[in-house]
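go over this:
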Amino acid sequence: MWVGRLVLALSVWATGDLAAQLPSGGARHSHGIWLEDKQFSQPEIAIAVSDTIVFANDDRVMHNIFSSTDGARFNLLRQASGSKKAAVFATTGTVLVRCAFHPSMRLTVIVQ
């Protein structure tokens, strides 16, 4: 599984469907978070303002990743197994990211 994650990290900008979801000229760096066993691959991540997190669904179930945090609201909508979706974090602060289908899934994003 780590080989697939390395390939994703190295080729994130080369993925056509993912590139269409990213705003032009905004993101500085991309970070990968994997969805597996109805969990995020890590509970917390620190990133810089304007960085992108790519959510890769390596699970066998659908997810719906979102944040209701003021100033950082987004909803990636339904995400099928095997797909990738991205979110850009434009303001500083602590952002709680969840899955609408699996309430126990929580990711804290610290945007510096």
Observations:
- The CA atoms of residues 9 and 50 lie 17 Å apart.
- The radius of gyration is 13 Å.
- The longest helix spans residues 2-11.
- Residues 2-111 form a domain with the Immunoglobulin-like fold (CATH 2.60.40.420).
